[in-house]
Design goal:
single chain, 304 residues, mainly alpha, 3-stranded mixed sheet, 3 strands, 3% strand
Length: 304
Amino acid sequence: MEAGNKTAVSEFLLLGLTEDPDLQPLIFSLFLAMYLVTILGNLLIILAVSSDSQLHTPMYFFLSNLSLTDMGLSSSTILKMLVNIHTQNQRISYPGCITQVCLVLIFSGLETCLLAAMAYDRYVAICHPLRYTVIMNTRLCVLLTFLSLFVSIVDGLLHSLMMLRLSFCTELRIPHFFCELAQIIRLTCSNTLVDNIVIYVAASIFVGVPVFGIMFSYTHIVSSILRMPSLEGKYKGFSTCGSHLSVVTLFYGTGFGVYISSAVTDSPRKTAVASVMYSVVPQMLNPFIYSLRNRDMKEALRKH
């Protein structure tokens, strides 16, 4: 390797959201509060679902797994940032960075797949209500969950293993608060053609298929609800899938916003700030959306 151009990588520097030392205590407090709210809110969802027999249904089974996924995604990004600010040490080891990339991809991919499974559950509940218990049986729910986990692990390991073949320049500063795949590829001195192809192909498969499933489900859901003769039936139909639709809109809306932000701005720091809306905020708000919009969940939480 040419000295001065390429180097053996042992660690990266995570620059965070700002380099202003006066803002670090504020950012630490803000993200610590958001992390605690995320963990406590999702733990309450899991506790309510597991302890209330009325919530032992496919929808709440997927919801409890979604809460576990939200906790995992938040922990894989926010914890390292909090430690870095507290210790005033921006370093993250090369293996640690690859591990973080892998975990973020796994949990974000799992969230995408679970949202698609929940959309299918709502589709069956509204479009085939008489066959709901037959179709959405325990075996299918467990199978969909493990399939989602398997697909997400394959996606995360695929990109992480691709990172191992990359060589990096002497500039190892990541203008982000966690190791993001796109930011890592920008630092490499290697030819990234293969990596970019893999990223787009994997995104088309591992993200495109769940998104298509969600769109397919809701197309049939809306069509079925609009055909209902009574206004009360239409209201009940929309309220049945209202919480899930709100979560889907929040998750994909913020993700699309980050994509647009990165496309229209050349500032990686602004993109990092925008990514907070995608990697932190939805995971914090999901428990509130389900607890505030769902009567059964309100009653279960009230018991605790």
